[in-house]
What does this fold into?
Amino acid sequence: MILLNRLILSPNCPLSQCFPIHHRLNPNRNSSSMAIASPSTPTFSASFRCNRAQSTRFFLRSSAGIRSHRTRRCRLTISSRLNSSKPSDAGGSVSPDNGDLQYELQHEFSPQRSKGSPVFVTLPVDVVNYSGNVRRWKTMIQSFRALAAAGVEGVVMEIWWGLVEREPGFYNWRGYIDIVALARRWGLKVQAVMAFHQCGTGAGDPYWIPLPQWVLEEMKSDPDLAFSDRLGRRSTEYLSLGCDILPVLHGRSPIQTYADFMRNFRDTFRPFLGLTITVIQVGMGPAGELRYPSCPSHKLTYTWQSHELGEFQCYDKYMLASLNACAREIGMHEWGNGGPIGTENLTHNPEHTEFFKSNGSWNTPYGKFFLEWYSRMLLLHGENICKEAESIFRGIEVNKLAKVAGIHWHYGTQSHPSELTAGYYNTWIRDGYLPIIRMFCRYGFTLCSTCFEMQDADEKQKNPFSSPEGFLRQLLLNARICGIPLTGENSGASLDDKSFRQVLRISKFYSDGLEKLPFSFNFVRMEKNLFQYDNWVRFTRFVRQMSNGNNFRAKLDFSMKVAAACAC
It folds into this structure.
């Protein structure tokens, strides 16, 4: 019997031949762990054993991916201990003690997990630190082991531009290679997110990841590289799309810079593409969504508290130049001087504003001109990125994915102001999402959006204008018309049965019918609360229901047995 505790590449390991030395895994890990092992949460402790003669073999080549592999069916027992302060022993197993409440999950799995709707889990924002190393390595091993046992299809890994390209044209993928190798070890798939946006609110935020420093320096010398609203407030969440094709970043345009990043990712991770990495999500704006930063991303979860309308982001010189040129083309020079007048305060009731009220100027010739230009600029930005991604990943068996924001808090009004300021020209008389979905479909992208756990009955108690279900109904019907695959996300870390039931209901609404369209779900995100006993039971039940129960057979008992083993 041999014990496989962690994946370390030696010079003779086949995997090590796929990467240059600076891309290999680093065996020196940060062993600190988060609260998975705290007294109040389950401790997952497992060993993974197999007979030497029956161990899985795989060979990788840079140009061809997996050369050969031997699949196997394993019986994996994951056990968890609650309310115990006794740590696991060196062998990786925990002995029962003091009548602690424990449970056992027995799960048979094969590399092909789900025949229904697969579930992915988004990793913590800070899974890779500024040095390029995986944080809490031992905890990651335990967490991946548990996710694999639960029948989860894979993980969503955000790859931050600000961490990888610290200098123009130089990329450090080390920590992300480690994560992909760990996922492969446990038979998990990976969705890789090209995160070209800022994360967090500032230096005091524990999850603060800004744009690359060299980009911020360019913004400092040319502030108009950042979006600006009518009050002169600038957003550094994402580069202004007004300069998309201008050589403003050390001789490269933003679109060229994003393309170079994706191209280097493709070349570095080629052995994993289509095998472990099955989805590439391409960021197209703040929070990775195709939208303007009309409202700071960190506020979007709490917008029901302030009902923010958002601000039009068209006051940097590059956006103004485009607006002015379009106004001159139709002989209306005065329409090119800036955004609409009468949008008033962010927190105003839209009916109290001149532009957004029911009979406001949004529905006048000027309003239509401005909103068409504003939304067309966003659509052009998305198409430029889609075109580059389609070219870069052409011929590689990965799904490409793009995301739209779930902005629902003024969906019940005629003008939908918060959608308009975000760049979605969607009102009660115009469909603003169909052109976006058609564009994604044209380049072979999967559509992703949020709010899948939200219900109108709950949201309307906080904001009478809100309708997440109305928003999703429109989005999903358009997606079905175009025949595009769909990925859903939750907007908050809800772990109650009501939220999971809503996701199941929405997924059936989309997938059922004569033509069953592909649907998957990304649970946002993996944190210590997920592994607490009650939450974990609800989550694993949800995964089983999403996969129609075909590939996951779980048994819950209180047998006091705490061990995890894979008997081949």
